Amino acid sequence: MHPPLSLILFFLTAGTSVGLFTILFVLQTLSLLGTVEALPGAVLLRAGELSLLLVGAGGFAASFHLGHKLRAWKAVRRFRTSWLSREAVFSGAYGVMLLLYLIALWRDAGTPLQLLFGGLALAAGVLSAYSTAMIYATNRFVLEWNSSITVVGFLLLYLMLGSTAGAFLLELYGLPQGEVFTFLSLTFLILGFLFRIAFNVRQFYLRRPTLNDALNLPRNRPVRLLDAGTTTDNYCTTEFYYRKGKELLPTVIPVAYLLNFVVPFSLILYARTSGSGESWLLGLSYVSLLVGGALERWCFFVEGNHVQNLFYGLYPSERELR
């Protein structure tokens, strides 16, 4: 599949926003129970403003993926059957609830109101991330994506981005809660690394689909292709198959692994064990995670093989899949 750069940007910005706010709000709620030390209101407000700005930027970036932008509002009409529609609704609800939460926090409207709007924003943000993942995980025409591993990988990417950004932010303010974010960041990086490996290992065992699968016909009477669907490039052959990307994939995947997992983990671990120059190291780890996350999402799209490519002779063979 051809990687849409606008959606990759959406994943990174919205992922940081949802991941950062989720962890911040959970910690702030636990502070009411005396489990952890509460964050200063000013820091919580700045982090919330950053989350709101990022999700707005992500929504703006995602709009470039739409063919008819003025018809974007129609997405809500398919809420009952479409994960894409649910993503749009929950993302919008997350932005609105986050704004109301920040207003309640800024006006010091009281803990109950802050918990109400914050809890609604948290629920909408998590549902938005889950809906985004399900768009791809439920696509049975792209076997590489059609797995629960895809969902877990998406959610872990959001938490990796949010926890690393939070660790950097709290380190700038010199707050002890930054250590919690650092621990969470290291944990999510390890889990993300393991699930990304599982995603790639699973591809090794995927069987090549047949034309019967593409046509949703029984396999007892095999269908064979007499002629390719076209001899010239068109939307199907360029958007559903990215030849240049396939050629670059063996080189980009190792780089994505390094920048998305190994480098951030090493920088964060060194920052905490060395005890010096922590803030810039944590900032560098987040930058590495952004670049690595962009490459990893690029690989995710390129690794996907749509069954419609069988009609054009573009689907990889069993040997190439392995």
UniProtKB/TrEMBL annotation:
InterPro entries: DmsC (IPR007059). GO terms for biological process: anaerobic electron transport chain. The chain crosses the membrane at residues 7-30, 50-67, 88-107, 113-137, 149-174, 180-199, 248-271, 277-295. One of its GO terms (molecular function) is dimethyl sulfoxide reductase activity. The gene is sreC. Pfam families: DmsC (PF04976). Keywords: Membrane, Transmembrane, Transmembrane helix. This is Sulfur reductase subunit SreC. GO terms for cellular component: dimethyl sulfoxide reductase complex; plasma membrane.
